[in-house]
Structure formats: C-alpha cells, structure tokens
Amino acid sequence: MRFKHLSAAILISLSSSSVLASDEVTSQLVEPQIATTYINDAILPPAIEWHGKSEALLLDADDEWATPFEQNGLKTSPSYDKTFAWLDKLIEQTDKLKKVSLGKSPQGRDIWMIIASSEGAGSPEELQKNGKASVLVQAGIHSGEIDGKDAGMMLLRDIVIGDKGALLDNANLLFVPIFSVDAHERSTQYNRVNQRGPVNMGWRTTSKNLNLNRDYAKADALEMQHMLHAINEWQPALYIDVHVTDGIDYQYDVTFGYNQPQGLSPASYRWLEQSYRPAIEAELSAQGHIPGQLIFALDNTDITKGMSLWNPSPRYSNGYGDARHLPTILIENHSLKPFKQRVLGTYVMLEATLKTVSEQSTKLRSAIQQDKYSYSPQLTLTWKEKQQEKGWDFKGISYRLEQSAISGNDVVRWTGEPKLYPNLPVMGNSVADIRVHRPSAYYIPPQWADVIKRLDIHGIRMTRLETATQLSVDQYHLSQPVFSGKDYEGRQRVSAQAVLNPIDTLLPVGTVKIDTRQPLGDLAILLLEPQSPDSLLQWGFFNPIFTRTEYIENYAVEPLAAQMLQENPKLQQAFNEALKDEAFATDPKARLRWFYQRSPYFDDNYEKYPVLRQR
C-alpha cells in the first residue's frame, strides 16, 4: 500500500523545509523548530515541517517491496551488501533489469551498474540495438551524499513491480547505485556534520583519499577509470551526477545545473536550459518541491553580496561532460533538508528525466551531434569573472549575525523563516581569458606512456607512427614554473608561462598522433594545452621536464663565456643589456648561468613541452 497519510511523528522528525510554491503564503508555515531525528540536529539551523505530493511514492514499511529506506522510518540508507541483496531480489522478478560490474575498487568491491530497458539488454551492443537514448545516473560519487541510491532503488521498483514500466518504452536507464563503493562502507553517524541524514553516512573520498569529483580530467582513481570506460562503452546521451550540497540555508531542496552557454557544448546547453529545465522544474514544483539553480553564495555571511554562477573545468563531472559533449547534470540536494525530502525530490527528478528524454531524444541527440562535430577554430582555456546582466530573485532563509564568544567572529544564525532576496547580483566566470587556435593534431613521443595511457582511458582516438617522420611543428617553451606548495589530490600541480615556437624535428617510431577533428578533440585540447587548468601538464604528468640534470663547473664556464663573447659581438651587446638589471648584475651564479644557457652544452630539452602541435 502507498502511504496516503504518513505518521505525524515520522514527518515532523524528518522535516526541515518549506515547499511553498511562492513567498506569498508564508503564513501557512509551521513554526521552525530544532529537529530531533539525527545526532547533529541540535547544532544545525532550525527545521521546517515539510509535506509534499511526492510522499505518495512511499510504500508502507511492511510492504514486501519496500526498500530498506522505507523499511527503516525514511531515515537510513542500506549498506553495500544490503543494497545489492535487495536489488538482486528485484532483478530476479523481471527480464527488464540486468546487473553488470564496471570493475573492482581498490579494496576489491564491484562497482555495479543496473541496466534497465524494456528489451532486457545486458551489453552495450544489445542496448544500442534498441535505438533509444540512455540516461546514466550515478549516486555516491561522494558516498555520504547518497540520496540518488535510495531514490533509484524506489524508481526501479516502481518500473518493475509498480505502474511505471512505460518509462522504458522510449528510453534506457543506466543506474550506478554506489560509485565510490569503498568510501560508502566507511560509514558512521559522525560523517557529514552539516547534513540531515541518513543516520549513517559514507565518507567523501575514496579509500586512497582521492575526491572522485576532482578526478575526471586526470583519472588517477581506479574507480574513475572504470567509469570513463563505461561512458565510452555504453554511450549515454545524458549523464546525471547526484550530490548533496554544503553551505548556506535556503528554501530550495533540489538544485541542479550544467555548464554555461559559452562553453564547449552550446547546443547541449540550449537543450538543457530550454527543454530539460522547464520540464523538470514543473514536475518538481507540482510534487511539492522547490527546485532551483546551483547555488553558491559569494559571501556566506552576507547574502546580499550575491551569488556565483559556476562554470567548472573538466576535473568536475559537469565540466568534463561539457568538454566531451555529453550533456551532464549536477544535482545538489540541500543538505539541511531531511533525507526523506531529498530522496523523494531525487526520485521525482529522475522520473521526470526519463519522461523528458523519451519525448525529446531526437532534439537531444541532434544537440550532441552539433557539439561533437563543430570543431571550433578557437578554444577558451581560462575564464574571467563578470557580473551577469540578469540578477536572481533568491528564495533564501532569513538570518542574523551574532558575535561568537568562541571564535570572536560574527557567526550566521539562520532563523528558519523564508525570505525573498530580490534581484541579487550574479557573478560568473563567463569572459574568455586565455584562448588558443585549434591545432590539426598533437604528437606525443612514446616515452610519455603514462600520458598516452591516460588519453586512451578517456577514449580519445590515437594513431602511432610506424616510421620515423620529419615534420615542421610548433613546440611550447615553458618558463617560470610555479609548483603548488602542498599536495592536491595526490599530485603536485604546476603552472608555467608558455611561448610557442616553430621547430623542425624527427619524430621517432611509436610517436602518438592525436587528430583534433574527432568527437573528443576538444577534450584532447583541454588535456594537452599547457595553460589549461586541467591539462595533464598542470596535474604534474610532465614535471620531470622542469628538472635540470646536467651542469657546468665555474672553472669551465668562465673561459667558455670569454670565448663566446670574443666570437659573437652581438652576444656582448645582449650581455651588456642584461647587466642593466641590478639583481642580475650582482648575482654571479645568474651571470654564469646566462652564458651556459646560450652555449651548445645546455640541455636542449629543459623546460621544452614534449607534446608538439601541428598547425
């Protein structure tokens, strides 16, 4: 039986937000109160009782097909073993569901994916034969943010046992209940202190302490490598990454977004903004939720300063999707809303997504094709911020500032009372900064095998030279490298100034050629251009080129310098010019190094970027 009238005790203990359709009916709100369901409720802002039509999606706790979430008072999420025990039982009831492993985690757990199709496809080839667009939904990339798992389990149940089988008539669902499987099992009630449930939550990072949603570009984590392989094999038309956000308090319970129109997939952006968002927001609103854009305040202590419009780079799921022309939606449910409300909102969004993709698959696929084969002659590597023309009527929560006796700072105290902040300014990194012309191809010498392997994991097409080849190409000469002061995501990042120079060179056998006129050509450019923030160079894959390994002794460079000056009058003029710099003139080592760098003994590969560009 569906719940028609939920227990008041359960509802009050799990509630935390208004679902009012507008701010004109705030008088109907229940008095904000401190919830008592979760161990951290007492230190969180006040909660507001919530009821919505989507509560009708829930089954009674004693129903045969209730999920573990429904069985346990709507406040817990099952372990890895219990999740797949329940899903295996569901899969046994139908030919529509198949389960495949994307690969093993570092601790040996399978990363399972459920394939849901009306034909019961169990392989990429079988799925592609049905001609339908596939939606890939992943939950638990940050495994404490697990709403998508429980929502997806309910939705699959209703497709198989309930009355929603028609959702697969014109679309396929690829569902990864737990992406970061090892972190999911590092579960306690003391994880995610700022989040209202579930009672036990997994850890943010993998068993090797890597953040998977910083790993798309560099693809260091084994889990990420499995996911990228799955994307290449199963070829989804839409990718959904389910998170729970941090930060400020506000009325919205389901926020979602994607990269901006000035990015690398403008046609996909138009489909997402003009076709997808209106349909999803309408359904969420009709079911009692308050949807919104991705929300990041410029200053968490002063909402009136405005909001930030995020245009992420390829280290993040939605930035990566933009680069590889895979429409990608980042869901950020609001952490201060109770687990029940967030799970139901996610269910509504996933169901509405399948309906929308079913109805709009031709337009969606057309947009993807436009983006894949546009081959823009110029690409933007970095962006600068600008205030956007349109402001934001922000559905916030009122607050006051109090001076803390503990920290001595002003601390925000959210009141739980809804408040509209009209026409807030919006800042966004939407102005092109560093831009590059599209090369026809890149060449990577065979000794850089780790780089070549990483590009292959992304699915970028490559060919190898079978004979040594003389070519005229361009090469970046790097200078002024700046290394990060501490480790970041397992790597020492580096940035450098880059100047492009023409060279003639003999490329050895085994050199890899990457043509940029391919569907993943834009991604290749962002990974290989040294000034791209998520280039493999900046992630530290090429750090050895910044190491000097040959030197010259002072007793040798002194007579060498004198000989060079005698033989080259222009060099004497250049040296005299350099001596005008007082710091240089008073630094004996710098003066000797100046001659060494101009001598034939100097390492010709030092600070030369080994990836070559062909015009």
From TrEMBL:
Active site: 332 (proton donor/acceptor)
Keyword NAD: no
GO molecular function: metallocarboxypeptidase activity; zinc ion binding
PROSITE patterns: PEPTIDASE_M14
A Pfam family hit: Peptidase_M14
Signal peptide span: 1-21
Keywords: Carboxypeptidase, Hydrolase, Protease, Signal
Cofactor: Zn(2+)
Domain (Peptidase M14): residue spans on this chain: 76-357
Entry GO CC: extracellular space
Name the UniProt record assigns to this protein: Conserved hypothetical carboxypeptidase
Organism, as annotated: Shewanella sediminis (strain HAW-EB3)
